[in-house]
Structure formats: C-alpha cells, structure tokens
Amino acid sequence: MTHRLERLRQRLGEEELDAILISQGENRRYLSGFTGSAGFLLISQQHAILATDFRYIEQAKRQAPDFDIVQIEGELPKWFSNLASSLRAKKIGFEAKDLSFATYRKLVATAGKKELLPTEEIVESLRAVKDEEELELIMKAVGISDAAFEESAPMLHPGMTEKEAAWEIERLLREKGSESVPFDIIVASGPDSALPHHQPTDRTILSGEPLIIDMGARFAGYSSDLSRTICLGNEDKNFGKVYDLVLGAQLTAIATIEAGMSGEQADSLARTVIEQGGYGENFGHGLGHGIGLAPHEAPRLGRDSKDVLAEGMVFTIEPSIYISGWGGVRIEDMVVLEKGRVRVLSEAKKID
Ligand code: ZN
Predict the structure, then answer these.
(1) From the CA of 296, how far away is ligand 1's center (Å)?
(2) Which of 112, 127, 142 is the last residue in one of the domains?
(3) Where in the sequence is the domain holding 19, given as residue range(s)?
(4) How far apart are the CA of 106 and the centre of ligand 1, in A?
(5) Residue 237 Cα to ligand 1 middle (Å)
(6) Residue 194 and residue 320: Cα distance in Å, rounded?
(7) N or C: which end of the chain has fewer CB within 10 A?
(8) Cα–Cα dist 255/86, whole Å
(9) Does a structural domain hold residue 45?
(10) Residues at Cβ < 5 Å from ligand 1 ion
(11) Distance of CA 168 to CAs 55, 161, 215, Å?
(12) Confidence of residue 2 (pLDDT cuts 50, 70, 90)
C-alpha cells in the first residue's frame, strides 16, 4: 500500500493541500487495505490516520498496518476538527462527490480556521491504473465469471424464465468463489434484451430470440464484468446480421485502441463500424468503463469522454445494438492496456 500513499502525497503537493479526508469506501480500501464499511482516512505528508468506530478497531489494526488507527464516536463534524488540528493541517481537501452537503455544512461550522476544499477524482484517477497485485485479483474475478458462463450456457433452455436463468448463474458464480455479485445479473430475453439494464422477470425464454447475459464476479474486492448474447434454438433472420455487426465493432476496437487515446476516440472506433452498418442510432451508451474495486470506475469510454487511456488501465469493451420490439445484442470483454495496446482478459466463448 505504501506506493499508493506515495502517489497520493505527490498529488497533495501538486494540489497544494496539507491533507485530504477520504470518505469514499473504495478509495478508503484502496489506500489503506481496510475492508470495513465505515471509517475515514486523513492523510498528510507525514501522517496517515484511519479513523473508525469501536466495531472495526481490531479489523483496522490487522488490515491497515501503515496507518495510525484512531477510534471515533459519532458523526464526522464531532471529531474532525480536533483530529485535523493534531496534524497541523489547514488546507484540507475532501471528496466532493462523496461527502453529503449536510455533512459539509456541519463540518464547515466546526472547522474554525481550517479551509475545506472540494476535490474530485484524485484517488479515482490513481485507481484507474492497476498495479500487478490488482491485475492478479482482477484475473481471478475474470476467471470465475468466465467459468460460470461456460458452465451455465449449456444449462439454459427455452421454457426457463429469466429469473431462473439469473439464479442459476448466480449460484455458479458463488460456487466458483465469487464473494458476492458486484451487480445484479442481467438476463434479458427477446424484446426485453432491447433494454440495456433490464432486470430479470418471470418472462419465459423462447427459442430463436436474442438472449443477453451480463454478469460479474467479485474476488478480494475486485470485480469482473462479462456480457454475452446467445440464441437458444434456431436464430431468427435478424440475429446473425446484428450479431456480426456488434462483434465486428468489438474486434475493431480491440485491434485498434491504443494508449494515449481519449475515451471519446476509443469509443468512435467501434461506433463507426456500427454506424456504417446502419445501426448508429441503436448504440445508445458508451463503449466501456474502467473496472476494479468498483464495477464502474475511471476511465470512461464514451462519446464525450476526455479521459486519456494509459498503460495499466483495465476497462470493458462492450458495443451493442438495441432494437425496440425485437431485442438487442451486447458483447462485453474486459481488457488491460499493455505495451500501448489492448490485451483481452475475458476468455468466455462467443458465437463465431
Ligand atoms: Zn459493463
């Protein structure tokens, strides 16, 4: 964890902050190793404090040896000012996307002469680039979802409901070592598959229609994310055409994305293929997203994304086409940027 703290401290210097208060859960875990669900980090150039309540003190001592553990009681504004004073910190950053406005107001009222400054995406931008240890954990999560998909695919059959299929997949994920599921599994059949974030219903899966499965595993906190579109029975006349276009877009992105591109440029590589096939209007979301401790994190690959893709980033590539009344096709793999190019991590079979 020490190299993560070093990178953060460098950013504090650049931002001219004496310290930063970390409240966001995944950021807290990333910097400290502490997996508890409540607590704050207060980090300056000299100090690293993990403040948590009675329930987590023992756990914090075990998991965060690089931090001084401080036991707190009550809301943040009650103890924050004293703790910050003990660090002699005057300019203190907080995470503007995480701290509530109500807490911020109370904090300012009790802060005395300390300056509370909003920051955005500081730790998130560090998290976007994965280190070796993280990549190993991500690969475990990817392996679990690949195996769960491979094993569930032959079990799926027409006549089964979306909910039954989702439960089968969830059971397999857990049996293969997933800690929990990082997001609700999507099983979307026929016209339902035109809804990108469909929740499984009691609808019966029919032969010949598109079936989108989107699922992930979690291992040591790290998520995987995998989508496949299959068809049980004989494909209807649209399926092959739409599927080939989405697959072509995905393979083009995989072959041509390079480090240094913006999220917008990467997105357009796949989008152009779908537009040229006449389905531009039907690809309504971005090409992909970073993934790690959170199933969706930086960088973002999408039409207006200025995020710059860099070596070591892990993200998804998931072009799609959704046709109202018919259904959709989405194919999603996880990749890592290595030596400037994309290496695909997912190994689950696709229709070819
Ligand atoms: Zn995804």
Answers:
(1) 7
(2) 127
(3) 2-127
(4) 37
(5) 27
(6) 10
(7) C
(8) 53
(9) yes
(10) 225, 316
(11) 35, 11, 12
(12) confident
6 φ/ψ angles, rounded to the nearest 5 degrees = -60, -45
262, part of any domain: yes
Between the CA of 293 and the centroid of ligand 1 the distance, in Å, is 14
Q: What is the mean pLDDT of residues 291-302?
A: 98
Ligand 1 centroid, distance to 183 Cα (angstroms): 10
Q: Please report, for residues 18, 123, 289, the alpha-carbon distance to residue 45 in angstroms, rounded to integers and kept in the order given.
A: 7, 15, 32
- What's the CA-to-centroid distance between 47 and ligand 1, angstroms? 37
Q: Are 334 and 291 in contact (CB under 8 A)?
A: yes
Which residues touch 297 (CB under 8 Å, ≥6 apart)? 26, 124, 127, 128, 289, 290, 291
- Across the beta sheet with 297-301, the strand order is 297-301, 288-290, 314-317, 333-338, 341-344
| pLDDT tens digits, 228-244 | 999 998 888 899 999 99
Supply the pTM of this predicted model: 0.95
> Of 95, 127, 159, which residue sits at a domain end?
127
Output the CA 141–ligand 1 centroid distance in Å. Answer: 14
How much distance in Å is there from the Cα of 102 to the middle of ligand 1? 32
Helix, coil or strand: residue 327: strand
Instruction: Kindly give the distance from the C-alpha atom of residue 88 to the centroid of ligand 1, in angstroms, as a whole number.
Output: 43
DSSP 155: G
